[in-house]
Write a structure and sequence with these properties.
Distance between the termini: 80 Å
Radius of gyration: 24 Å
Oligomer: single chain
Strand order of the largest sheet: 3-4-5
Low-confidence stretches: none
Strand content: 5-15%
Shape: elongated
Structural class: alpha+beta
Helix content: 25-40%
Number of helices: 5
Length: 158
């Protein structure tokens, strides 16, 4: 799993960093559950499978600044160059949801990058797209029964 240019295996990196790292969020409530703030972590669970700083191939989905979704992928060949190892692919807010999800699924799974993360990637993109939608205003509640008749009578007499 580690790239040819790396001197240390990813398993060794995980064993060293799994109890203490900058992305780790520990909660004492709910049985001491641990989360991750890693942008290349699709589920925000602190685990070897999802953490992006450990894996040579990692996938992350974040909201775009102008609306839409941004897919972050990590190049395995650039593991020794952290500044240039993340590639960004953007889908704007004017793209349909189906086109966005199909593009994400193609880049993550069909090209053989990380097919085990396809469902998580599409779910994350769906949650971000749903959060970006405009909220509809609640319709005014209509009076029913005796109150409605009284209001109609008052309105018609005045």
């Amino acid at each position: 799993m580690s790239s040819p240019s790396s001197n240390v295996s990813t398993d060794a990196i995980w064993e060293i960093c799994r109890t203490q790292n900058a992305y780790l969020v520990k909660r004492r409530q709910a049985g001491g559950v641990q989360f991750s703030r890693d942008p290349l972590n699709l589920t925000n669970k602190h685990s070897r499978k999802y953490d992006g700083f450990v894996n040579d191939k990692a996938v992350g989905i974040v909201p775009n600044e102008k609306g839409g979704v941004k897919l972050l992928t990590k190049k395995a060949s650039k593991s020794a160059h952290p500044a240039s190892n993340v590639v960004e692919t953007t889908w704007g807010q004017n793209k349909t949801a189906r086109r966005t999800y199909r593009g994400i699924a193609n880049l993550v799974a069909k090209n053989g990058y990380r097919p085990d993360l396809r469902a998580e990637a599409v779910a994350r993109a769906s949650a971000i797209k749903q959060a970006q939608r405009q909220k509809k205003e609640a319709p005014k509640s209509k009076l029913r029964g005796a109150k409605a008749r009284k209001a109609a009578e008052v309105k018609s007499t005045s």
